[in-house]
């Protein structure tokens, strides 16, 4: 039996933040703690208080190194740390904890300082990318030409930071190809974020209301205007409802737009919700819609699949890895309002047999993303073992 590892996970975003990168890091850390490893997390302070203490995430206690941080006000919740503070604290934490491996989740700030100090000490480094610089530019307030220059600089910084790692991962093969193209890295591993599918309640109801649900941040990169326009074009006799689950910088703007269109009786916004409330929202829906064109994996889509929902999503980035067109839902051409409407209509008007077929296929395809595979693979990477990327298309029937 291999001995337990001492693992330091470095993040620029972690709970209580609600986003894909934060949720992955939480589930990874909790899963590793449950397996008996000594896991500690270095992340921004969630408020004014910084320091070291134990927090519980995903039901597991873990030591947190919360570094002093400041709000980035163009964004609705983002906090940032000063690079020199990160490097100073990285040295302190590494010398105190003496981890066997450092696993950073972002090259932006934590990854830069943490990998420099880990490299000086000969500690094994693993890096995971959840980030596309283009998605953050809307929060910088920079003009377009300047944004393009900054994006190039950010990718150069990514290449330097990930270049210090013994292994680099990202959630899907398409995202791995994307990272290799922009950083000129090679042999990037595609490892699913994974999900505890048994934590969700499959919904096999075929007679419920025509409720469409979106889960995620209410922000520009999600292309929610496309979903709202498609919803408006649905045939009135469907009596469809649309539910947005999540918060974000465009939440108030979207609410105002819905009110202006006179759709308050058909469109609801929940804001941020608890895990139980999220699961309930998925269970009461008939179809899950994901119009985003910038998903490196989409944990929200995976959660919907674990609830046995048919999925309608954009044929972009990682979504085709999850949505098998015509099997567990449909892909639509990105930004094409009419195509999205037509695909939603196909699901909402499907007969009972067809709905059950799509629901069962969602459950079948999500099995390949079981978090047990993810944890097994990262444990092997931490130990320096040769890893063959798990293929989520291969499931045990």
From TrEMBL:
Q: Which residues form the Glycosyl transferase family domain?
A: 207-362
Which terms does the record give in the GO molecular function aspect? glycosyltransferase activity
SUPFAM superfamilies to which the protein is assigned, alphabetical: UDP-Glycosyltransferase/glycogen phosphorylase
Supply the alphabetized keyword list. Glycosyltransferase, Transferase
Q: Which Pfam families match?
A: Glyco_transf_4 (PF13439), Glycos_transf_1 (PF00534)
Ranges of residues in domain Glycosyltransferase subfamily 4-like N-terminal: 18-197
Provide the GO biological process annotations.
carbohydrate derivative biosynthetic process
Q: What is this protein called?
A: D-inositol 3-phosphate glycosyltransferase
Give the originating organism.
Aurantimicrobium photophilum
